[in-house]
Each structure stands twice: as structure tokens, then as C-alpha cells.
Design goal:
Layout (H helix, E strand, L loop, with lengths): L2 E6 L4 H12 L4 E8 L3 H11 L3 E4 L5 H7 L5 E4 H9 L6 E4 L7 H9 L3 E4 L2 H18 L3 E3 L2 H10 L7 E8 L17 H4 L9 H9 L1 H13 L7 E5 L5 E7 L4 E5 L5 H9 L13 H4 L14 H11 L3 H17 L5 H14 L8 H22 L4
Parallel strand pairs: 1-2, 1-5, 2-3, 3-4, 5-6, 6-7, 8-9
Antiparallel strand pairs: 8-10, 10-11
The protein binds nicotinamide-adenine-dinucleotide and magnesium ion (MG).
Amino acid sequence: MKKKVVLLGSTGSIGTSTIKVAEDLPESIELIGLAAGSNINLLAEQTQKHRPSTIAIYNPELVPQLQALLPLGPRIVSGDEGLIELATLPEADIVLIAIVGTAGLQPALAAIRAGKDIAVASKEILVMAGEIVMSEARKYGVRVLAVDSEHSAIFQCLDGKPSSSVRCLRLTASGGPFRQTPHSEFANISLESALKHPSWVMGQKITIDSATLFNKGLEMIEARWLFDIEMPRVQVIVHPQSIIHSMVEFVDGSIVAQLSTPDMCLPIQYALTYPHRMASDRVQTDFAKIGTLTFEEPDTERFPALLLARDAGNRGGTLPAVLNAANEIAVAAFCNRQITFLQITQTVGEVMSDHQLVEQPTLDQILLADRWARTAARKYIASQTPRH
Ligand code: NAD
Ligand code: MG
């Protein structure tokens, strides 16, 4: 059966990989809705090729230009309402959310409430509101499928086993570009060197998160909610080759891992074709060429982001949303050269320590904490940076 797929974030790194997967499997996947932030040319090109019934461009001012590129249709929507409309298209089977940051949260909830399965690349939404997203999914009887490679790996290793059969999850981390950089050099890390990831080509925000290891911190909290495993049972191990995408250690001591050469098309395809495995030649793994797989303990002195994320995950409530929002602001400030690499983690730590945690928050309380953290992070950054 053909899956009818809505893709939010079609022009980004995950989005363009998803388009490749759809082109690999035209018998199994039909793209019926595409949404992008501002790249109208690529969105128009994707639309001409895949003929979705509806497309969304976030900025409403770009609608006329997009219409001019696509004189024969399709329907074009915009803004937050446009994303919600796409996420709830009556004919959609599954909505893949690959928008960077938190803008995907409301569309994810709308899709669930409209009875759609969701495939989540945007880990930020599970970090912010994992408990609400998962409980809504249970209530509406829909699946939340992981696109993040580590979580896809864990999902494949678990193979339906309950969390009571798990001793721990072992998330693998490449260690990022500064795995071997001495702490004394961290103060001088440049934006250019932070944007060079050793194993993956990704969007800017997640690439910086991979350099600070906030990405792995966010993924620990993401795993906690996706698989209903408390934080102490979510472990991180550095594995620089990025061949083992993660492992599950069961209560009897047996460990199951999922391996392949790194390519996001694989977890995307699995999420979109689940529960089936479809043939594809795209990903090939040559063990003799890889030679060695190595492992190291993560260094939390150089990468305190892992400790902050563990703390946020352990204490729960609104704290993970605060960590996530402060990190988004700090990463943007680093990318604008307003703060140093070390100040990203410092900003998040300061904002977290000033936060009055709300336990068992409602969605509104989470969104309020998110806004509070953004303001607090901007204030902290302004207090740190000299005025010119
Ligand atoms: P990216 O920056 O390359 O792409 C983001 C996409 O979202 C673009 O298409 C952009 O136009 C669109 N977008 C942004 N704001 C929007 C809005 N308000 N409305 C509609 N579209 C909007 O980012 P990416 O690397 O593809 O990452 C997307 C998400 O997937 C992130 O949450 C990231 O953490 C996660 N993820 C990415 C990778 C990867 O390999 N890139 C791996 C795992 C998880
Ligand atoms: Mg990942």
C-alpha cells in the first residue's frame, strides 16, 4: 500500500533526504504535502516533481512569488495555520516533522489529534513536551516513529519489547569535531571549525549541537520519552566511527545493536515504511574497509552539556523546555558571532539555574517556560557581550 506522506521542512537536510527516499520508493511513498520556511525555488522544484496537493511556505509575503513559480497550482498556505492545515490533511497517513527547533510542536499535536502517525526528526518537540506528545499519541492510537538515527536504532533493537526488559539504552555519539581538542583550546573555537562535523552533513543548528554535545543531551531526553525509560537508564558512549547507531542492553545482559554506514535515508525510510522493510541499494556497509570500531567514555568536563541535559531530564517538569530554548538562543548568538563556543553551554547553565521549575506542566506552562528562557538567555548574552 502507498503511504501518503506530509513532509514539514522539505528543503532542509532531513527534508531533502526524505525526498530522495520518496524517489527511491515511488511504489510505496507519495508526498501529498510539503512545507518549507523560505526557500521558494527548491520548494517549487520539489512541487513540480512530486505534485503534492497542498504546500506551505512559512513567510506569507513569499506566497505571490511562489504562486508565480507554480502557475498551475497546487493550493498554497502559509504561517502557523498553514503548517497545521498541512499536518491535518484528511488524506495523509503520516506526517514527518523536520522543521528545526520548536515550530513543529503544534503541528505534531494537531497531526496526532487528527489520527495521523507522526515521524519525528525535530527532537526539540519531544524534549519540550515529550510526556504530552506521547500521552496524546496513546490517547489517539497513533504511532510516534523516530527519524533520529540513534532512536531509530533503539526502536529496531527493542523490536516491541517492554521497557521492563531493558537494563539500559546505550546511545552512541560521534563525539563531534572537538572530541580530541584539549580544554585549553575551547575558548578559541571558531564558528567555521564548529560547523565541520566528522561523520554527518546536517543543518546548522544540529551541527553546532553536535559540537557542544547538546545534541546528545537532547537525544537522551528524547529517548526517555520515546521508549518510556527513566533517565538513569539512558547512557551515552562515544563511538567516533558512527557505525553503531545505538544499542539496547537487555536485563539478561544481552546487547542488541543496529549498524550501517551513516546515512539518514535509512532511518527516514524505516519510519516511512514501518512495519515493512523495503529493498534499497542506497546504503552499503563494508566492514573490512571500516576495520575498527572504538568506544570511549564521554568527557563531561569538556562537554558539560551532557550533565545539564541529564539534570534537566532527571528533574523534568519545565526544565527540559528551558534547556532547549536557552540552547536555541545561544546557538543563534554563536552563529552570529555574539558569544564564544564556551558561552553556549554557560548561557544554558545560567538560565537553567534561574528557572523556577513547574512540575507536571500543562502545554501552556511549557510554552511560557520556553518564552521565559528565550528572554532570560538573550538578557544573559547581552550582559556578557561588550557593546560596540
Ligand atoms: P535544516 O536547517 O537543514 O532544515 C530545516 C527545514 O525546516 C528547512 O526546510 C526550513 O525551510 C524548514 N523550516 C524552518 N522553520 C520553518 C517553519 N516555521 N515552517 C516551515 N518550515 C520551516 O535542519 P535539519 O538538519 O534538516 O534538521 C531538522 C530537524 O531534524 C532538527 O530538529 C534536527 O535536530 C533534526 N535532525 C536532523 C538530522 C540531520 O541529519 N540533519 C538528524 C537527526 C535529527
Ligand atoms: Mg541523532
